[in-house]
Amino acid sequence: MVGEEGAFVLGWDEVLTEEELSVTLKVLCMSEEEFKEYKEQDGWEDDSEEEESSPLSNEALSRLKPPCKQLLYDSVLLTLQSYGSDLKAEQDLLNNKEVYEKLSRREQQALHVRYGQKRILHQLLELVQ
């Protein structure tokens, strides 16, 4: 469902792997009975009763049903815990010119990537609270 990487791709304004995330949330938030019924239906892609044709934007994420929001919230928290440091630590490193300049170019780039990833994850936390 989530491809080879096992992850969803989030951007600043929308989910870039929206179809995968929508189907995953829908399935994981179903009761066992609903899942059996859904599985027996022909054509998973053809099911459009609750699907939106627009991208899964940040606004759409904030309007998800509570069980889906909770699932996303918990998933984001687990993802943030997998990092070795928090958002503030990354921000402090970026703001400390003396320490930042001692990092290799590769370490600086990795810092920017981690910081950006964490900012997107924190934004998602706010959207689904």
UniProtKB/TrEMBL annotation:
The keyword Nucleus applies. Pfam families: Rubis-subs-bind. GO terms for cellular component: nucleus. SUPFAM superfamilies: RuBisCo LSMT C-terminal, substrate-binding domain. The keyword Transferase applies. GO terms for biological process: methylation. This is N-lysine methyltransferase SETD6. It comes from Tachuris rubrigastra. The gene is Setd6.
